[in-house]
Prior knowledge:
heterodimer, A: 596 residues, alpha/beta, Rossmann fold, 4 domains, six-stranded parallel β-sheet, five-stranded mixed β-sheet, 21 helices, 22 strands, globular, B: 199 residues, Pyruvate-ferredoxin Oxidoreductase, domain 3, 8 helices
Amino acid sequence: MxxxxxxxxxxxxxxxxxxxxIACGYPGTPSSEIIETLAKYPHEGLHLEWSVNExxxxxxxxxxxxxxxxxxxxxxxxxxxxxxxxxxxxxxVGVEGGLVVVSADDPGPxxxxxEQDTRRFADFxxxxxxxxxxxxxxxxxxxxxxxxxxxxxxxxxxxxxxxVCHGYASIEATDTFTPKKYEGFTKDAGRFVxxxxxxxxxxxxxxxxxxRIGEDFSSYTYNTAxxxxxxxxxxxxxxxxxxxxxxxxxxxxxxxxxxxxxxxFPESFVRRELAGVKELLCLEELSPYLxxxxxxxxxxxxxxxxxxxxxxxxxxAMGENSADLVxxxxxxxxxxxxxxxxxxxxxxxPMRPPVLCAGCPHRASFYxxxxxxxxxxxxxxxDIGCYTLGNAMPLDMVDTCLxxxxxxxMAQGFSHIDPEGKAFAFIGDSTFFxxxxxxxxxxxxxxxxxxxxxxxxxxxxxxGHQPHPGTGRNMMGHQFDPVSIPKILEGIGIxxxxxxxxxxxxxxxxxxxxxxxxxxxxxxxxxxPCIAIEKSGRTCSVSEKCINCKKCIRExxxxxxxxxxxxxxxxxxxxxxxxxxxxxCPVGAIGGAQDA
Amino acid sequence: xxxxxLICGVGGQGTVLASKIIAAAAMVEGNTVHSAETIGMAQRGxxxxxHVRIGDDAYSPLIPHGKADIILGFEPAEVVRNIDYLAKDGxxxxxxxxxxxxxxxxxxxxxxxxxxxxxxxxxxRCIFVDGNAACEKLGSVKFLNIYLLGVAAGSGKLGIxxxxxxxxxxxxxxxxxxxxxxxxxxxGFETGSTKGVIS
Lengths: 596, 199
């Protein structure tokens, strides 16, 4: 069957073609569509799950692999940090069935905290990594990744970047799914129980094996060279290779090398290709990984080749490459006259910054805490999700945001350093399950004085509304008893756990005041569904009582509130009838929640 | 055939469906197609851009600057934001209805599209249409994407047969909206082909 799919879809179809038996992941841009695509195609016999976090996903997959099954694990690059504990150890222990960890990198970054490079992680863990440059290649390469994993009994990393994950192409895919037949687990404590002695032994084995994999990769299909042999050559990887190819299609006199397996570095291939090359330009995103490998090789071999790239300032250290940036770099490198197409004196288009949606319950939750704490010294520790946007004016309710789950623990740090201040943690329901729980245990154990605000909208909203333990629905299509957040909190030992509807402003404000005044750890669950999931079908409207003070706009910043000819109005196409503005209005001019 | 088509607007206007229809229609006619969407962090109201690349020798997923044959612009400022992608002899189909930023009530930029349209009139080959007004006459602004697709097809710059596109539209919309979408497309097509290219 021919399918027009995004790169993430191609990865999913490739995994199905490889007979994957189990697929686990945690949502994160740009990786989320892999698991979602698996669910859409025939996959009878495949165990599919959104795991509670990336560490859990990898551990579930590791055991399946020990039993000989083929296992796929998906996450975004920062998710690999969460999964790094099992990954580092699993690299020593090795696998039985093919185990591939897809860690999608995000140059830019476009929607991530860091510009980290999964190829470095592969080198750090001493395991192979595949780096596709297109959806078509990703489809084939993920199958190769499973094969190499089984051949060398090692977990393998697979690292696409945003433009590969989200680019669309036609894939000729197999339309039947036949899961791999596996032997089952054979008990072997000497192999599967990690002890210092085993690690020492395997460390030596791994270093010796990686030399062989590097040799193997030197004849790998997707490590390629094209164009005439030239003294000035180009080495590229991933999407940067496609940008280079786009420009060099009119310059076949220039040699273009591609390395799709950054680690173990295909030394023989590159050594062979460097013969006669005097200058090599390295085009890659995130870190100068290949550039450093070539420098190492040149040093080892005593080659006289000039290596240019990020380390020499020829390629920017940070941010995404683009077709245009690569064109400019190549024109400069090859001494070709520029072909700039920038137009002059264009007017500046208006900014369209991301904001919380009209009617988003997070706006009401933040507003309630803000009003309740007006006279206090506060610390507002945010977290990862839509609600990070609570930082924007006029709410201005996020003082810190570090990584998944950090809000709960950072609030504790502030409470110990400043016992008189009021420290709050804001965390979404999915993030709470993923990495907030242990922080709550820490707070109770170490007697922090904090108020934990759980923004429970019953979904993983930011990444595309995936289910989670609190939704009572899983990726096998089964219903289960939703994991109860209040029961968890009470079980941990929090004495004050209150659930409140954030859209009831006065109730929400008094709950916040009451909790903040109590000593110790308190939790407020602001419970109201994501407006993108549950359509209210209601809108508010402004009556003639309006005195045009604009307090509603100034204080809530809801995008449904606009002014027309200087008069406040409500955009009925955006309004969800949440009534926050009606409750803020000092003269009762906003009519609440009429059916649209 | 080689065609680079850039579709831009703001989230909620239906640009993604328009790009999917163009890609599918081009494939039906036997072309190799690649496309990409850049949607960033914004949901509704953020800038949205789709790049559709038709032809065997398109390698970059995004159209290089100065190579787009046509920009299908749902909003004047979004056309200007993406204008560097347009080839010197390229055509921009511009919907003249401006969409103010969702934060307009807070920032009060006063944006109404005038500066953008003036710039485009003076510097770019454009077909200007008031797509929102045309669609309101047809019954709903929801047909905007199909109407503008019709204008682009009518201009002859897409290089895809009218009937191929119509068939793709009809395979994607619910039965009860088929007739209305067909009407919107054909009316756009008529406008695109009669307006021709005015600068």
